[in-house]
Specification:
Blueprint (H helix, E strand, L loop, with lengths): L14 E5 L9 H9 L1 E9 L9 H21 L4 E5 L1 H12 L3 E5 L4 H16 L3 E5 L21 H8 L16 E2 L25 H6 L4 H15 L3 H4 L12 H6 L4 H8 L8 H23 L21 H9 L5 H13 L4 H14 L4 H11 L5 H12 L14 H8 L4 H6 L19 H7 L14 H18 L1
């Protein structure tokens, strides 16, 4: 870790540090700049200006606990976190007037909906002779600056990563400030209690599985990173596609909330150079790189969450089948690996990446349901949902995105289950009604003899559904639909 130095002894007025999706005290350049400026007023604003899509219920649950964790960290450094609701374009200037602050610092966010508003606010503050500075941190690169030789943004992952990877070590993570100077008149400032925001689910409280699976907050993020490096990094390249084992980092929700940065992750990976195989480190770095690529696509194509990247898919004959969509959402399609994934999502707010591809392929290609409906369900139920990775990944699977999987690559859910969950451990964990099925039939219970089903306590159509579509017929239908738009083009 490295500490940023700057001469600010001449600055006496307080600085406002505006937290957004950077809920951490380490490697936070805005917070370090505020600490060097003088007394610090940390603020988090729950935006009600309608600029961006409201985040889902799972992310709300995470946000509550992450803010509680950040508040404790700031208290230990010497100053509380102020919570406000409203439009930052109004609240930040008002806070400046109330406190006499001479500086406002924040870390950049790259959601297209926020970029113009942040730029306008910065210009307004600077026009008043205030210091208004923004810093990097969420990403390893600036999406508007990285360009191909022809001057366009990258639309294919491999050349994107080749261009970016040599520079990813350039930014060294910053230490947290040792302490913060308390603003003298803090008690007179407005603020809202976190509980008043209603971020936690009630009536019913469905968050028990999330609480069991996750520890939101900066401390939880670094504990998860340490555990991954010590226990699961070795063998990552071979084991990351097996959903029945705990072989992935689980850092995605911490990254989505800004509790840890990719620079910190890459710095920590240096400690594995004598232990983990090069293939394990390389593969994990590329997974972090895919997140960078997704943000690169979104910043340069802001319509990515709503509009097909490939306009050929604008005429795709999607089906509007609410019954099939409901079965998919509830994990009742009759295909065990698909259903296990959807139930894992509901119970834990997360799904293994290999299974995400399987369930997305099933929705868009077996059921011919528009990828946007799947993206919307993931947005509401994932603790790691972010506008870039969610949209880019769904479009990739559907075949409509940048560097997308070919539409005619249609995952066979039985073969995928048999390949990546060979013993059936993943299915048995999330579909207890199939727990006694032998592995020969765990991924195709409809093929089991009646005596096998009876011994396992499975009654198809009663305790577990028949498949809602036939794989071969669904595959042929999907290929015909693709041929239709191909010929039209």
């Amino acid at each position: 870790m490295h500490r940023m130095e700057r001469d600010t002894s001449h600055l006496q007025d307080p600085a406002i540090v505006w937290f957004r999706n950077d809920l951490r005290i380490q490697d936070n350049e805005a917070l370090v700049s505020g600490a060097q400026h003088g007394s610090v007023i940390p603020v988090y604003i729950r935006q009600t200006d309608g600029l961006a899509r409201a985040q889902g219920a799972a992310r709300d649950w995470w946000l509550h606990h992450s803010l509680a964790s950040l508040s404790l960290s700031l208290d230990r450094l010497g100053t509380p976190l102020i919570l406000l609701s409203g439009d930052p374009a109004d609240l930040i200037p008002e806070l400046v007037r109330t406190t006499g602050a001479s500086a406002v610092y924040w870390n950049r966010r790259y959601d297209p909906a926020f970029q113009a508003a942040d730029s306008a606010l910065k210009a307004e503050l600077q026009a008043q002779d205030l210091i208004a500075e923004s810093f990097a941190g969420q990403l390893l690169h600036e999406p508007t600056r990285l360009r191909t030789d022809s001057g366009t943004f990258y639309k294919v992952y491999s050349p994107f990563w080749r261009a970016l990877e040599p520079d990813v070590e350039n930014r060294q993570p910053l230490d947290a400030p040792e302490s913060l100077t308390l603003y003298a008149n803090l008690s007179g400032l407005p603020g809202e209690p976190l509980d008043s925001w209603g971020l936690l689910p009630t009536r019913p409280d469905w968050s028990g599985g999330l609480a069991e699976a996750w520890t939101p907050g900066e401390t939880g993020a670094h504990e998860r990173l340490s555990d991954f490096i010590e226990d699961r990094m070795q063998g990552y390249d071979d084991r990351r596609d097996i959903p029945g084992v705990d072989a992935t980092s689980g850092l995605s929700p911490h990254l989505a909330t800004g509790e840890i940065t990719p620079a910190q992750i890459f710095e920590a990976l240096k400690s594995t150079e004598n232990d983990a195989a090069p293939a394990d480190r390389t593969k994990f770095r590329k997974e972090v790189g895919w997140r960078e690529f997704a943000w690169h696509l979104l910043v340069n194509n802001p319509a990515l969450p709503e509009k097909n990247h490939n306009p050929r898919f604008d005429d795709f004959p999607w089906l509007d089948n609410s019954k099939s969509l409901d079965a998919w959402q509830k994990g009742l399609t009759g295909y065990p690996v698909v259903d296990a994934g959807m139930r894992q999502l509901w119970q834990t707010g997360w799904m293994h990446n290999r299974v995400r591809m399987i369930v997305a392929s099933f929705l868009t290609k077996h059921l011919l349901i528009d990828w946007r409906k799947g993206e919307d369900w993931f947005w509401d139920t994932l603790v790691d949902a972010d506008p870039a990775s969610n949209a880019a990944s769904w479009q990739w699977v559907a075949g409509s995105g940048a560097d997308a999987a070919p539409y005619f690559r249609i995952f066979n859910p039985v073969l995928q289950g048999e390949k990546f969950d060979a013993e059936g451990d993943y299915v048995r964990r999330f579909i207890p009604e199939l727990a006694q099925m032998p592995k020969k039939f765990i991924h195709k219970p409809w093929a089991a003899p009646e005596q096998v089903l009876a011994a396992a306590g499975v009654r198809l159509g009663d305790t577990y559904p028949h498949p809602i579509v036939d794989h071969k017929l669904a595959r042929d239908r999907a290929l015909a639909a693709y041929q239709q738009i191909k010929e039209a083009a």
